[in-house]
Amino acid sequence: MSIKVSCLQMDIAFGDPNSNYQSAEKLIKKAMVDHPHIIVLPELWTTGYDLARLDTIADQHARRTIDFLQTAAKKHKVHFVGGSIANQGEKGVKNTLLIISKDGSLRHQYDKLHLFKLMDEHLYLEAGSTKGLFQLDGHLFAGVICYDIRFPEWIRAHTSEGAEALFVVAEWPTARLKHWRALLIARAIENQCYVIACNRSGSDPNNQFAGHSLIIDPWGEVLAEAGEHEEIVSAEINLELVKEIRKQIPIFEDRKPNSYH
């Protein structure tokens, strides 16, 4: 089965949710010209890294963003890997990835497990504890957030359960663009899965972001790659290829997890 995926590489307005919802709405409308099955947004797309003001700009229980994505999903009949947002809950703010199906149902929420101390996430955010596994159209996928890709054991915890594609949402800086590309390609090869990685573009008061959203096949071949600026990058993925490669080189059968401690 062939699935078209589109990544919305947004230039996020720092600390301005209203502006960012408007930008996302325009990009979604633009993306739908190519009739994607799944649309992907970047990390913290409603606020950017305005962490110091999350107490006033974070989305209360993600309600506004869930409603926004549900409305768009039903209107356009498209699934959303809805990026991540600053989600204000009872016990603090989490960096939450939202999965919305084309019928408008909330399929999964994943809270970022690995907080990135270099950008002070640990000072303002609470870490999650559960996996990013979710299903769309009968296929098992996984969603993770930015820094998570530096932890191959976390990614393998998802693909060892059968995830056929890894969705990555990020605010990855230009300074480590080479790491971004190398890590994503490695995660695709070692897990024999598609990697659909949506980064942001633009800058904030402290960072320049890399863009270069990527769609990578299970052999590590780059199917599509964005540049540095705001754009939409799309590609077709064929999940039958995942099954073929996993059968050809049966790494999951050949694992020796009892020896990995």
List keywords for this structure.
alpha/beta; 261 residues; six-stranded mixed β-sheet; seven-stranded mixed β-sheet; globular; single chain
Mean pLDDT: 97
What structural class should be given to the helix and strand makeup?
alpha/beta
Radius of gyration: 17 Å
The major pleated sheet works out as: 7 strands, mixed
Specify the overall morphology. globular
Number of strands: 13
What sequence of helices (H) and strands (E) makes up the elements? EHEHEHEEEHEEHEHEEEEHH
Taking the alpha carbons of the first and last residues, their distance comes to 38 Å
Question: How would you characterize this protein structure?
Answer:
By secondary structure, the protein is of the alpha/beta class. The protein has eight helices and 13 strands. The protein has helices at 17-31, 54-57, 63-76, 121-124, 152-159, 177-191, 239-248, 251-254; strands at residues 2-9, 38-40, 59-60, 79-89, 92-100, 106-111, 133-136, 139-145, 165-169, 194-198, 214-216, 222-225, 231-238. Strands 1, 2, 3, 4, 5, 6 and 13 form a seven-stranded mixed beta sheet that branches. Helix 1 runs parallel beside helix 3 (63-76). The longest helix is centred in the first third of the chain and has 15 residues, at 17-31.
